Amino acid sequence: MHDQTGALRKGVAAALAGYPCRGRRWLALSGGLDSTVLAHLLASLGEPFTAVHVNHALSPNADAWQAHCRRLVDALQVPLVTRNVVVTERGGGLEEAARHARYVVFEELLGEGDQLLAAHHGDDQVETFFLRLLRGAGVQGLAAMPGCRPLGRGQLVRPLLGFGRNALERYARASGLDWIEDESNRDSRFDRNYLRRGVLPGLRERWPLRERVGRAAENLREAAALLAEVGDGDLVAVGLRSERLGQSISIAGLQSLSPARRKNLLRRWLSLRGGESPPATVLEELLRQLWAAGGDRQPEIAMGELVGRRWGERLYLLPALATLDPPQELLWSGSESLALPGGGTLVPSSDWPAGSYRVSFRQGGERARPLGRSHSQTLKRLLQEWQLEPWLRDRVPLIFEGTRLLAVGGLFVCHGDWKGRPPAPPEWRPGAFSD
C-alpha cells in the first residue's frame, strides 16, 4: 500500500514538474473519487492550488455535493471557488452539454499562464478512446486525452493518466478519504456508463486495455502532429493571409491539393482559429459549394462558431456574425476609441482632430467624394472599389460632422474644408477574430 501511495505521489509530482505553471493552479473538484484523491495528493505535496466546483443542478444531490467539497477543502486548508451553471442541451446529449457548461467556467477563470488540473485517469482514457472510436472519430479524436493541452489563456493538465481507478481507490481508502458517488454513473443510458459497465470489463479480461490504448493513443498523437505539420505547410502554400476580419486562402491553391489534403488543411485551419473539427460531411459540403459557385456568388457554411465564405477567388474563415440591431447613431469625440455595435471599435488616427461627430451605418443611397476625386459616387460603388468584403459593408462606420460625411472608417476621408493637411481616416477594427 505504501508503494502505491508513493507511486501516486511521485507520478503527480513528475507530471507537475513536466508542465511548469507560470500562473495560478486550479483543480477541477467534483467531489468524486478521482478529484478527491488529486486534491489530497496536491495538498500532501505542498503544491498551492485553488479548487473550483461547478454545480450543474442536474441532481437533487447537487447542493450536498457542493457542501461536501467545501468540507474537503476546509480540511485540506485550500481555497474553493464555486459556480452555478444552467445546462442547456445543444444536440450532443446531456453529458456533453454539462461538460460544455463546465469548461466555459474553467476558461473564464483561467488567467494568463494558469493551469487547470483535471483528475482524468488511465481508465478514463480507455473509455474516451472507445467512445470516440464508436463515433467515427479521426486521427486527432482517437489520440484521446493528452497530458497537457491549451485551455483558454492557460493549460489543462492531467497528472493522473498513468494510473487506473483501482489505484486511486486504494489510495483513498488508505488515506481515510470520503467521496461522493454520482448516481448518474450507474445509468447505462449514458454511453460512457454503458461502455464502463457492459463492454470494457469483458475486454479487460483478455487484454491489458490501459497499456494498449495508451500506446495506440501515443502513436495517434504522433500521426496527428504530422498531419498538423502538413496542414501548416499547405496553409502557407495556398496563400493564407489576415483580413479585416478573419483570414482567407486562395481557392485555386486549395483546388491544387489532393482531396485528403484539402480536408486536412481545413481541419487544421479551424483548429488554429479555435474551432472544433467538423464531421467530414460538413467539410465535403463546404468544398462542394466552393467548386459549384462562380466568383460572383458568396456561398457560406456554418461550422460551429465559425463560418466559411467564398468571395471572389478566396475562401474566408470568419466568426459567425450576429445580426446587428437596427442602425443607430452614436456620438463621438474623435479623441478616444468608440465601441461599435457588433463588437467593433473605431480608433482615432494619430492626426484625427477632436470634435463633435456622429457615427452611423449604411442605410442606402449615401454618396461620398473621397479625397482626390472630382465628383461624388454612391457609397455602395466606393465600397466595392475599395474591396470591402460584402459581409462588412453594413457594419463599416460612417463619420459625420453635422450632415457632412467626413470619412469611412478604415478606408478613406472625404473631400471637404479641412484645416491644413487632411488626416488619415480613423482605424476601424471590425471585431473579434481580427488579426
Can you describe this structure?
There is one protein chain. This protein is α+β, with helices and mostly antiparallel strands. It folds into three domains: 206 residues, HUPs (Rossmann fold), CATH 3.40.50; 76 residues, Chorismate Mutase Domain, subunit A; 100 residues, no CATH class. The chain is 40% helix and 18% strand. The protein is built from 13 helices and 21 strands. The strands form five sheets. Strands 3-2-1-4-6-5 form a six-stranded mixed sheet, with helices on both faces. Helix 3 links the parallel strand 2 and strand 3. Helix 5 packs across helix 8. It is elongated, with a radius of gyration of 27 Å. The protein starts with a helix and ends in a 6-residue tail after the last strand. The relative contact order is 0.08. The mean pLDDT is 90.
Which features characterize this protein?
435 residues; alpha+beta; Rossmann fold; Chorismate Mutase Domain, subunit A; six-stranded mixed β-sheet; five-stranded antiparallel β-sheet; 13 helices; 18% strand; elongated
